[in-house]
Write a structure and sequence with these properties.
alpha/beta, four-stranded parallel β-sheet, 7 helices, Helicase, Ruva Protein, domain 3, homodimer, two-stranded antiparallel ribbon, 2 domains, 11% strand, Dna Topoisomerase Vi A Subunit, Chain: A, domain 2
Chain lengths: 198, 198
Amino acid sequence: MSYRIESLERLTEHFSCLPGVGRKTAQRMAFAVLNFEPEEAEDFAAAILEAKNSIHYCPICQAMTDEPTCSVCSDPERDRSVICVVEDTRSVISIERVRQYNGLYHVLHGVISPMKGMSPDKLRLRELVERINDEVKEVIVATNPTVEGETTAMYIAKLLSPYGIKVSRLAYGVPVGADLEYADEVTLHRAIMGRQSL
Amino acid sequence: MSYRIESLERLTEHFSCLPGVGRKTAQRMAFAVLNFEPEEAEDFAAAILEAKNSIHYCPICQAMTDEPTCSVCSDPERDRSVICVVEDTRSVISIERVRQYNGLYHVLHGVISPMKGMSPDKLRLRELVERINDEVKEVIVATNPTVEGETTAMYIAKLLSPYGIKVSRLAYGVPVGADLEYADEVTLHRAIMGRQSL
């Protein structure tokens, strides 16, 4: 019989289920856990269970939270006249990192994609429409700059048109710090179309 | 207040303690865990605790195991006349993967490194010497091909010289499939020195 440690194999198996982790990296991680202090390993295991058990969707904006409502929705300082519509909670974190946006969010939990069987009724669009009231002045659609994201943005614009509020979309263009040489044709075309006067 | 999920932050923190995992990858992993099935997350947490609690060092070869003695030491089919000395348990796994070696192992848990404060008495050398008996014919030193690994190999050769058993070292040379152009000078020198007649 060759060398085999069952419990290490099992742990390696779990790590290899994580995104971007292959067999070898997973084994390296499992060994790292064995070298943790016992309390550290216990905290790690507890953090997995706690995150999994305590995190749910905010009943207002549908973003993940471990509070009754998320920290943005429950913050009286945030501007309630703007709602930024995003695909998932990760996008909320990305936009928050910029520290420029002070409005609210709405998480769709997906984009319209007939290929993946995602029809509009599977997104949290009903919840978005329910949030539209006199206070809301603008909805910024910040879905990803993909075909599906674009389709979803169009759908939302049409969906909200009866309410007479402004629906905007993130600007397309060349990323800051990039080289024009490496910009693809479509991006460059959109950057020229959306040029701004100085 | 900006968007923040405490339990997600804590889980991200734990993932970022793993080798080769930065802040962003850790966050991606934490989100992946949230998308696991509840049983899968529970199994993951349990696997961490189980591995951490059940794995100890084999009293014979000092390799990690979750059995009373490791699967190699307890296998009657293995050749007890050869002991392969390695730095850590990971090396055992690497050598086992080749499926060529059928002897026993001995894990030192480190190499001699004055820089890192690793003196010979901190390695499992006493345990190695205790294993030397009439049955053992050869000790293969398979420490890593580094200065520290080499020093340790020399030390072991000297340590075992009174017992009159053969002490060998892994062959140095160009790795199979590599290009000579990219081989460093020292490796190439060792490959020439250790040339084999055809």
